[in-house]
Amino acid sequence: MATDKVHIFGQQCQAPRCQAKSKRSGIQCRRAAMRGMRVCRTHGGASTGPKTTEGRARCGAAKNVHGRETREKRRKRAEKLRELRGLEGVMKLLGMFE
Ligand SMILES: [Zn+2]
Fold first, then answer.
1. Integer Rg of the chain from CA
2. Could you tell me the pLDDT band of residue 28, with boundaries at 50, 70 and 90?
3. Which of 59, 13, 56, 21 is nearest to 38 (CA)?
4. Ligand 1 center–CA 74 separation, angstroms
5. Contact status, residue 42 vs residue 31, Cβ threshold 8 Å
6. Domain-by-domain residue ranges, the chain?
7. Exposure pattern of 37-48 as b/e (b: 16+ CB <10 Å)?
8. CA dihedral defined by 41, 43, 49, 51, rounded to 10 degrees?
């Protein structure tokens, strides 16, 4: 969350700014973000996320990418690391390590 705050109620209190950016102008919204959220009410701050099991499943199945990571990549890596730990155990049993 951004540290820059926006003054509301005439400088009486501060709130983090809405991080939403305009599609057309590329300018940040700058309204006060909702409590615990990074965006204002207009930009989805009031959203509570998927509620039904169907909706939650749909979100879970959606393509989730964070940087170079995907769920599939993480799953494959975990699988290979499990395999490696298993092989390590076998090698220890065979006395290949001290
Ligand atoms: Zn906004």
1. 23
2. very high
3. 21
4. 33
5. yes
6. 1-62
7. bbbbeebebeee
8. 70
Name the DSSP class of 10: T
pLDDT at 1: 47
DSSP letter, residue 69: E
Of residues 86 and 16, more confidently modeled = 86
Q: What ranges make up the beta strands (E) of the chain?
A: 5-8, 13-16, 65-66, 69-70
SS3 96: coil
For ligand 1, the distance from its centroid to the CA atom of residue 69, given in whole angstroms, is 28
Distance 63 CA to ligand 1 centre (A): 25
pLDDT tens digits, 55-94: 999 888 887 777 888 878 899 999 999 999 999 999 999 9
Q: How far is the CA of 43 from the centre of ligand 1 (A)?
A: 5
CA 56–ligand 1 middle distance (angstroms): 25
